[in-house]
Amino acid sequence: MAARANWKGYLKLSLVSCAVALHPAVSTAQRVRFNILSKATGHRVRNEVVDSETGDPVPEEERVKGYRLDDGSYVALGDEDFDQVALESTHTLDIETFVPAAEIDPIYFDTPYFLVPDDDIAQEAYAVIRDAMAAEQVVGLARVVLYRRERIVLVAPRGRGLMVRALHYKTEVRDECAAFEAIDTMKVAPDMLDLAVHIVRSKAGHFETSTFEDRYDAALMALIRAKQEGRPPPPAPEPGPGNVISLMEALRRSVKAGAGAPAPAARAEAAGKAKRTKRARSPAERSVEGGADRTSTAKPTSTKASGKTARSSPRKRLKKAG
Q1: Lowest mean pLDDT: which of 80-89, 109-118, 238-247?
Q2: Is 273 a residue whose pLDDT tops 80?
Q3: Interatomic CA distance for residues 266 and 206, integer angstroms
Q4: What is the chain's alpha carbon radius of gyration, rounded to the nearest angstrom?
Q5: b/e 239-249 (16+ beta carbons within 10 angstroms → b)
Q6: CATH 2.40.290.10, the chain: domain bounds
Q7: Which of 120-134, 210-224, 247-261 has the weakest average pLDDT?
Q8: I want to staple 67 with a disulfide (CB 3.0 to 4.6 A). Which of 21, 75, 222, 286 is the partner?
Q9: What is the pLDDT of residue 8?
C-alpha cells in the first residue's frame, strides 16, 4: 500500500500535463521510538503549548505563526495570509529545463519522493514524459511548493515511474573551502599509499542494502527486551584500539588482519582463481613481510638489454596482483 501523498497537483511539460501525486520515498517509522516519562511516577509526560507571558494554554485553533522583527515584536500570519502567497508551483510541477544527471552535485540532494499518476486519464501523458527523459538520458528540473516553501526539484525516470528529489538552494549549501581550510596539503609517502591502496582493494565490494542494518536500533531493542524480562543488559562491546603511534605500523597491521578475510566481491571469484598459478606478491605485502624497519627506497629495475621494458611502478604491479 502506497504511503499517503504529501502533495497532489499536475505534472506539466510545455502544453502536456497530467494529474500526479507525490509520495515519500523513505520512512523512519521502523526506528525505535520513545515517550518521555516522569522518573518518579513512571507516567507519560504531556507537552502543552502555553502563552509565554500568562502561562495559559493556547488551543490549536488560536495559534498563528509570527515573524520576529529586530525590535523583538512580531508580525502575525494566519492561514489566510499564507493563502495569498499562492504561486503557480503550489499546484503545478512545471518542468523548466532538462540536464544530464551527472551535472548535479549530490551535495544538493535533499528528500526523495515517488511521483505517480493520480488517475487513469493521467497514465498516457505520464508515460510520454517519463519515456522521453529516459530516451534522452536526462533529468528534469522543476519548481513545486512543499510545506509552504517553493522547492527546486529533480524529476528522473525510475523503472516504471518517476522519482522526485528536492534540491537545496545554493544559499543553503556551505562552502567546502571553509570546512577544509585546516587540512594540510601534503604528499603521501609512496609506500604508505601502496599499503592503503592494498587495503582499499581488499575491501572492494558492491553496494547491497541488505548487508546494512541499524545496529544501534538493534542494540537498543536488545537492551529493552533484557530490562523487560529482568535480565542483565547485554555486555558492552570492547573499546577499539587507541590512538595510532605509527601510521605505517597501523597500515601494515591492517594488511595482515585482512589477509585471511577476502572482500565480498572477491569471494565469488575465489573458486576460479584457486586453479591459477600463484600470483606475485604485491609491494604492500612485501612491505608487511619486511617488518617495521624496511623502507621502500629500492631503486627501480633498469631496462634489460633484450629490449623488455622495466617493471612497472609499485602501484601498477599491485593492480596486476589484485
Answers
A1: 238-247
A2: no
A3: 11
A4: 30
A5: eeeeeeeeebe
A6: 7-27+85-172
A7: 247-261
A8: 75
A9: 94
User: Domain 7-27+85-172 has what CATH class?
Assistant: mainly beta
153 near 139, Cβ under 8 Å?
no
Burial class of 25 by CB neighbour count within 10 A (0 to 12, 13 to 18, 19+): middle
Rounded-to-integer distance, Cα 287 and Cα 101, Å = 42
pLDDT at 67: 93
pLDDT recorded at residue 291 = 52
d(CA 99, CA 139): 6
The residue whose grid cell reads 621502500 is 296
pTM, 2 dp = 0.68
pLDDT (tens digit per residue) in 169-214: 999 999 999 899 989 888 988 988 998 998 889 888 888 888 888 8
Please choose, from the candidates 177, 195, 16, the residue with its C-alpha nearest in 3D space to the C-alpha of residue 92.
Answer: 16
**Is the CB of residue 49 less than 8 Å from the CB of residue 142?**
no
Q: Which three cell numbers stand for residue 174?
A: 556551505
- Measured at the CA of 228, the angle between CA 223 and CA 233, to 5 degrees, comes to 35
Give the number of other CB atoms < 10 A from CB of residue 101: 11
